[in-house]
Every structure is written in structure tokens, then in C-alpha cells.
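Repro case for the chain-ordering regression, as requested:
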Amino acid sequence: MPSQHGKSGDPARSLSLLWRTQEPTSRGRGKPGLNVDRIVAAATGLADSEGIAALSMRRVADALGVGTMSLYTYVPGKGELLDLMVDAAYGDLDTDDRSGAWRERLRRIAFANRALYVRHPWMLQVVTTRLLGPNLIAKYDHELSAVDGLNLSEVEMDSTVNLVNGYVESTVRQTLGAEQVARDSGMDDEQWWRTYDPLLAALADDTRFPTASRVGTAVGRAHQAVYDPDHEFSFGLERVLDGVRALVDSRAPTDD
Amino acid sequence: MPSQHGKSGDPARSLSLLWRTQEPTSRGRGKPGLNVDRIVAAATGLADSEGIAALSMRRVADALGVGTMSLYTYVPGKGELLDLMVDAAYGDLDTDDRSGAWRERLRRIAFANRALYVRHPWMLQVVTTRLLGPNLIAKYDHELSAVDGLNLSEVEMDSTVNLVNGYVESTVRQTLGAEQVARDSGMDDEQWWRTYDPLLAALADDTRFPTASRVGTAVGRAHQAVYDPDHEFSFGLERVLDGVRALVDSRAPTDD
DNA sequence: ATCCTGGCCCGTAGGGCGTACGGGCCAGTG
DNA sequence: CACTGGCCCGTACGCCCTACGGGCCAGGAT
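-- result from build under test --
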């Protein structure tokens, strides 16, 4: 199922790819039919529609009507392709709007990131450490600016942004994982529970796990009734922002 | 790199495996040399030491000195094996200690979960939706009990526990991802930045991303100096718990 | 006008993976 | 004593990534 792609290639090459550092050549046969952008776009489309599990170099090449190995003329390997896909996707975020107070800005950032991950679920499967593409840096800069000027230390600013982003990622991951399982099994939550709850009840009786049983039932009922994912997401987000507020208040004790 | 395993097998079979529902048979050839527990243990050892990317049915079978296909006598497939591994790993958590006030209890839970994920990094790569093993349910019950009796609704209790768990998972994921990249590249952060920062500086000048540049530099320096991962983890955790406190206080306005 | 060169494209092949299928083996039961 | 059903597993199929090397061809150099 899993793993990461190691990528392990030359970081200098990766950087030059991410920042599109390449003068158009003259030598060589006519116009190239392929280029990095087309490959990234095809791969992204495939990953969006069929999931990252279906993303293979063969499938990408097929989608482009080209031999598998042709991709390697433009991209060192699958790992670098994934990096390029992630940075390109982050390019969809608005990094210009810097209006409003910190809480409103962090809220907007959280919702925008969430929407992006929902659009491109595979992004959550790619490790982005040392992925220094232009769009990732612009995103980081934009997010940090939301908590700049609040008397936080630089390390605290970084932690705060990571805290919010971590919340977004973990909730989206949860949601997408559930959707994937539902898709794979061909049963939605209600069908599934109706079928297997009796079986589970025979194994784990309510007296052994009283709290889990009570809460699980209530949560199931709530989801079945008027379940609003945005509301659920907002609830946790406001808790996180309350925590940030406590920090911000403590750093600006006199003028608040 | 990624994906999940679909598993898609018969959930009833999975449940019976997770809860070890099987009377020892009599018919058949002598004593079986293999059993589910031995397979799960071997697979866990392999995943712990070499990463989930190295976990293959062949490798597990080799570690047990057995043919690959013999595993399928005890386990329907790789997906189910991963489920069994996860539930078994959660069995290491202490689910008895219910002493202390909610904040202290959530703090203990967060640290215990973090330690578990550090010990078994591959756990973060397995989707646990509808994974209803005995240890996972016991964990859920134990964690919910930490926020029981605080006048929270059941849905709020569930959200709160998820909030804390989500924080833990996202921070550990970040840390482990960074470690994996460092291992794969053979360079620690300091070496890496010393080598590639000049290259990056040529591409992204400081004036274009002023906040990212300032904060990135400060965070890098801080990590290089007296970096204490526990302290970093605690910082964010206390922010999360502050957010929970705001909720708890609002639900018990009169007697606090 | 010819040759060279270097980019592009990609077929082949090697070493992984998960697992379906079917068959050999043998202890206990009938 | 035959049978049966659990155990063990070799083989094979269809995927995956990618190293290697070769064919092709437009432009530059001579």
C-alpha cells in the first residue's frame, strides 16, 4: 500500500525543474512533442481522477500517447514528478490576499488548504520536506504573514502555522480515508454498520467499552442525520484558533 | 510511492481475525508451524526496521523461513495483514490508567500515542476507518473517558479526542517524513542546507519572500542550536489543550 | 552539399510486487 | 484402511519502476 518514493535524485536537478530553469535549446530534432508541464498536468489529472495508487509512469505516458520511457527525458523519475505535481498544485492557492485580522486570515487559509486537498487528495501522500518549489515557498510566506506583527517569535510563528496546517491535513486525511474505504468496499457508512454492527456487538459487548459504545452510537446518528462536514471542520478549527488566541493574548499583554 | 491497500476483502473474515475467533482445529496435518500472531510479529519487525516500503509478502515469508504463499493460509491478503499489525500495535498502549484531570489525561494520551507512532512509523500510513479491532476500540474508549463528565455532547467528545489525536499524528508525520528524507538523501538538515541554500538563494531572492526567509532562517538556527523535539511537541500540544479548555469552560460556566 | 552532433523518443529487459490456482503431503477420523 | 481436510508452497500472470542502448532527425559546421 504505502511507502514514499525516496526520490533520492540530484536535488540541484530537482530545484532547476521546480523553478523551470532551462533555456529553450536550438539543436536537436524539431519541436519536442512533450514537456514538463504537459507531463505534470497529465499525471495530476490521473491522480485526481483515479487516485495516486493508479498513478504509474506507464499510465501517464499512455494518457499522453507516448512511450513510457519518453517521460524520463523530462523528469528524472517518479519521485521528482510527484514533487513537481505538488508544487504545481500549490500554485492554485491565492497568496496575495493579506487582508483582515490574524484569526480571519488563518481561517481563510485553513479553508483554502482544505479545498485544495479535497481537489487533489494525493497531495497528502507526498512528503514535502525539502521540497522548495516556488509555490510552496510562496504559500509558506503567505501563511506566515498572517501571524506576523503579533509579537510572536519566529519559531512561534512557524509553530502556529504548522499547527493550523496540521489540523487541516489530519481532518482531510480522515475524511478522504473514509471516502476511499467506502468506495473500495462499495458500501456507505450506513449500509456497512447495519451489516456488521451485529457481528461486532457479539464480539465487543457494550459493558466492556461503555464510553466508546455510547459516543460511537451518538456520532453515527449525528452523521446520519444533518451531517455538515463544514460545520464539523469549523468546530475543530475554532478550537485550534482559540488555542492560538491564548498565545497571542499572552504575547501582547498590555495593549489588548 | 503511496496508495493504500484497498483491502476490500470480507469484513466478517477481518473481524474474526482481529478478535481471534477460531477454535483450534483437530483434523489436518500435525501442528501448524505458522499462525497469525507469528506472521503479524514478523511483519511488524520488518516494517519497524526497514519501513513499510520494504514490507512485502515475500520478505515476511522469508523472515519466517516459509514459502510466500503459506502466509495466505492465515491471512487473506496484505491489506488485512496491515490491519492486524495496526491493531496489535495499539495493544501496547496502556488503556487502564484513568487518573487525573482531563488536561493531564489528554497530555498523557498525546505523549503515549506519539511514542507509539515513533516506535512504529508505518502505522501512520494505514487508513484505520472501519478498523474495529479490540485494541483500537479499547483505545477509543480510554481516550473518550478522559473527556467524559465535562458536560460535552457526545459529538464534542469525539471531536475533542480527534483534535488531539490529529495534532499528534500530524507532528509525528512531519518528523518522520523529515527523518526519512534525511536518511534517503544521506544528508542531515545542516549539510543539506549548507549545500543547497546558495542555489535556492539564487532562485528565490529574499525580497520576494521576506517573511518566509526571515522565519526560515530563524527556525533553522533554532533547530541547529538547542533543538528539543519534546519541547516543540509540547508547545503545540498546549495550544491545542488551551483550545479545548475554552470549550470545556464554556460548557461548565457556573461551577468553574 | 555533406557530415556531425545532440536532443528526442522508446523497445527491451531485469528485478521487484501481490496473489490466483492447483497440487502434494499427511494426521486424524470414520 | 481409505478418506478428508488443513497445511504448505511452486508456478505463473500481470502489474510496477527504470537502466541501457539504439534509431531518428534538424540544425550547425565544414
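Ordering looks correct now. Residues 25, 27-30, 32-34, 61, 66-70, 72-73 of chain B lie near DNA strand D (CB under 10 Å from a C1').
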